[in-house]
From TrEMBL:
Pfam families: Glyco_transf_22. Signal peptide: none annotated. The keyword Flavoprotein does not apply. Belongs to the glycosyltransferase 22 family. PIGZ subfamily. This is Mannosyltransferase. It is found in: Endoplasmic reticulum membrane. InterPro entries: GPI_mannosylTrfase. The keyword Endoplasmic reticulum applies. Its EC number is 2.4.1.-. The lineage of its organism: Eukaryota, Metazoa, Chordata, Craniata, Vertebrata. Keywords: Endoplasmic reticulum, Glycosyltransferase, GPI-anchor biosynthesis, Membrane, Transferase, Transmembrane, Transmembrane helix. GO terms for molecular function: alpha-1,2-mannosyltransferase activity. One of its GO terms (cellular component) is endoplasmic reticulum membrane. GO terms for biological process: GPI anchor biosynthetic process.
Length: 514
């Protein structure tokens, strides 16, 4: 929309089925793209718009935003009886922070909003006593913004909101003051929702930024009329789609315990295991107290402040995890906001210190796997192709390019820097097509060169290289991008110890011969 580039619109952002708000993409990636566009228009940077800046500028902005997480840990650690500097080291050393919080995921924004919400509901006076909650408007704004970013934010916000409500009721003697707090929260939440609904409605009814710019030129009655005509509330569309098990099955179904048994360990390693152990010990002790009928005399608050640490933090961790486990589609990135309560809990009694060597090795391997190897050749491949396609043309006849991707993640077309009016570049994403289907497509392209200056490139992982050699085609050029690991087509272990190991951990760009 901003740079007038050809992109692939995911179904969530189509006007026929808008399930995602456009506000956060515009406020994050949109701002960074607007900056590099302005720099180029002002001749400050003549070639600002290229594949590298298109990738790095939004990531740089997200990396700056990620320090909200550091600030939150520093502010919250004393409140939850953890050493702030040790907690910061644990946070900074996590590959989740290094890899996921520096990339443009809605889950990253969800984690940052969750961190801000935890800061707002957790406050103490200088003498260590609980401070009177005064952040009702901000809590309402952040909760609503998080809900529009990802409706699953309500799972993360539930425990902080209940904790805050408990503090409100305990600290206020007047029912009028309590109602005043909740009224402020509701009013600010409603106002925030109106802003999101208005922006989304104007964007999706005409699919573009021009509709948003036209708001300032329209009268109030025109704006209200358009909203009434077709009001778009993206979170409700999101929920109605994802609550249908058949829709989730299209994206992959997982056992309900995947988050608990696999994804939590994959992301947080020993910290997740320590939290599970502490949770079971607390539960065992609490049940033991109930059996011995001591809870009536000691009260539950005694349990919340002693034994294995503060179980409120464990609830901040396990309650969202439990709610997310109700859905059959479970990806690891859905859990990345939980790093904050987990880090605070792990350092509240220095329980992670004895495992520091295990934690360091785990995060080094995680950063190497997910930050470098996993689909690692796809972005460099797009950089290479972008430079190739935008190189000076020797003749006046435009060159035609066909880029056929197979057995890779969906290539982000924006990084190819193709203008919308450019019809000389075609991108075909064959995903995980079978060998026979792949060969048919490649052979068809090889036999149907329609011009003298047509170029067809096939991009495949090295582990699928053998499949393409069985096709009745020849290649005149090949480029190997290293490293690249495809977990869907993993390399065979014996090949990794042979002289051909680089090809197994690489991505091939094969240029088709006539």
């Amino acid at each position: 929309d901003i740079l007038n580039l050809q992109v692939y619109y995911p179904w969530e952002f189509l006007s026929s089925s808008p399930c995602r708000t456009v506000v956060f993409p515009l406020m994050t990636s949109g701002v960074s793209y607007w900056v590099i566009k302005s720099l180029q228009q002002l001749d400050i940077c003549s070639s600002c718009i290229n594949s590298y800046t298109l990738l790095v500028s939004p990531r740089l902005l997200f990396t700056m935003f990620s320090f909200i997480l550091d600030y939150s840990v520093y502010r919250l650690a004393p409140f939850w009886e953890a050493d702030p500097w040790k907690a910061l080291v644990l946070l900074a050393g996590s590959y989740v922070t290094l890899v996921f919080y520096t990339r443009t995921f809605t889950n990253t924004l969800e984690g940052l909003l969750f961190a801000l919400l935890m800061v707002l509901v957790s406050s103490r006076k200088s003498d260590g006593s609980l401070a009177e909650p005064t952040s009702s408007p901000l809590i309402g704004i952040i909760t609503t913004a998080g809900f529009f970013n990802r409706p699953t934010f309500l799972a993360f916000a539930l425990m902080p909101l209940l904790y805050w409500a408990g503090l409100i009721v305990d600290s206020q003697k007047s029912i009028k003051t309590v109602i005043n707090h909740f009224l402020k929260l509701v009013l600010c939440a409603c106002f925030t929702a109106i802003v999101f609904v208005t922006a989304d409605t104007f964007y999706f009814t005409s699919m573009g930024l021009d509709s948003l710019y036209s708001i300032k030129k329209s009268s109030l009655f025109d704006v209200i009329g358009q909203l009434n005509e077709k009001m778009i509330v993206t979170p409700f569309n999101f929920l109605s789609y994802n609550l249908n098990p058949h829709n989730l099955a299209l994206h992959g179904s997982h056992p309900r315990v995947t988050h608990f048994t696999v994804n939590g360990i994959m992301l947080f390693g020993m910290l997740h295991i320590l939290a599970i152990g502490a949770g079971f010990r607390m539960l065992k002790k609490y049940i033991h107290q109930l059996i011995r009928v001591k809870s009536h005399y000691r009260g539950s608050s005694g349990l919340l402040e002693h034994s294995e640490g503060n179980p409120t933090l464990l609830l901040f961790y396990f309650v969202p995890l439990a709610f997310l486990s109700l859905f059959s589609h479970q990806e690891p990135r859905f859990l990345i906001p939980l790093i904050l309560p987990l880090v605070l809990f792990s350092m509240s009694q220095n329980r992670a210190v004895k495992w520091k060597h295990v934690i360091i090795i785990f995060n080094v391997l995680g950063a190497l796997l997910f930050g470098c190897l996993h689909q690692g050749g796809l972005i460099p491949c797009l950089f290479h192709l972008e430079q190739l396609m935008h190189s000076p043309e020797p003749s006046n006849h435009p060159r035609h390019y066909t880029l056929l991707f197979a057995h890779t993640y969906m290539p982000p077309r924006s990084l190819l820097n193709i203008k919308k009016r450019d019809t000389h570049i075609e991108v075909i994403d064959m995903a995980g097509s079978e060998g026979e289907t792949l060969c048919q497509t490649v052979e068809q392209r090889a036999n149907n060169f329609t011009c003298n200056d047509c170029h067809v490139f096939v991009i495949i992982p090295g582990t699928v290289r053998g499949t393409i050699t069985k096709c009745s085609v020849s290649f005149k050029n090949e480029t190997l991008i290293f490293p690249h690991l495809s977990m869907e087509d993993p390399p065979q272990i014996p090949f990794l110890f042979s002289g051909n190991w680089r090809s197994q951990l690489g991505l091939y760009i094969l240029q088709l011969d006539r």
